[in-house]
Design goal:
Shape: globular
Strand order of the largest sheet: 1-5-6-9
Number of strands: 12
Radius of gyration: 21 Å
Order of helices and strands: EEEHEEEEEHEEEE
Number of domains: 1
Largest sheet: 4 strands, antiparallel
Number of helices: 2
Structural class: mainly beta
Helix content: 10-25%
Strand content: 35-45%
């Protein structure tokens, strides 16, 4: 499995912001929207009594800017695999509805999501070495031989900085706040 980490996200205004900041803002917005809809006090959402010293956590969340790329078999081939864009569930505290899928915000990882019908996004495994890959997208400008200006959006690929951890864990016991 590989994670596509959105380091920079461009807002609708064209302003770039850090992917982690954008991810926290989106998650916070969804949580506030849910809280307003439910109008519940956080203590009313508790299933486990506040006096319990330990709590069971099924799964931790992953930052919103981390998009999973999962290995899948290439159709009509028994050995070759490619990485396909997946989605993590957005699990909000107190939400009775099934979790919605977290969609990427950056243009490279969003490829195919805004089309109708939606297209899956595939990446060859050999494109991502163990150290990772950093893809930078920026506007480029040059003059043509006849003097006119040409502007295009270009992508540059470079070696990554090594492995990182999403913090995703399953089946853990955690101390309840105030009992430690």
């Amino acid at each position: 499995m590989v994670w596509g980490i959105e380091q920079t996200v461009t807002l609708a205004t064209g302003t770039p912001i850090a992917g982690a900041r954008a991810g926290r803002a989106v998650r916070g917005w969804h949580q506030r929207l849910l809280d307003e809809r439910l109008t519940l006090d956080p203590d009313e959402r508790r299933i486990v009594p506040a006096s319990a010293a330990l709590r069971y956590r099924v799964m931790t969340s992953v930052p919103e800017e981390w998009i999973p790329l999962l290995p899948v078999h290439v159709p009509q081939d028994t050995r070759e695999t490619q990485l396909q864009r997946g989605a993590m569930p957005r699990i909000l505290e107190g939400d009775p509805a099934p979790p919605a899928k977290i969609r990427p915000q950056a243009t490279i990882l969003r490829s195919g999501l805004d089309e109708s019908p939606r297209r899956p996004y595939f990446l060859h495994e050999e494109e991502v070495p163990r150290a990772g890959t950093r893809v930078t997208v920026r506007w480029q400008r040059a003059r043509w031989s006849d003097g006119r200006v040409v502007v295009w959006r270009g992508a540059q690929k470079a070696a990554g900085r090594g492995e990182a951890s999403s913090g995703l864990t399953f089946d853990t016991l955690v101390e309840a706040p105030g009992t430690g």
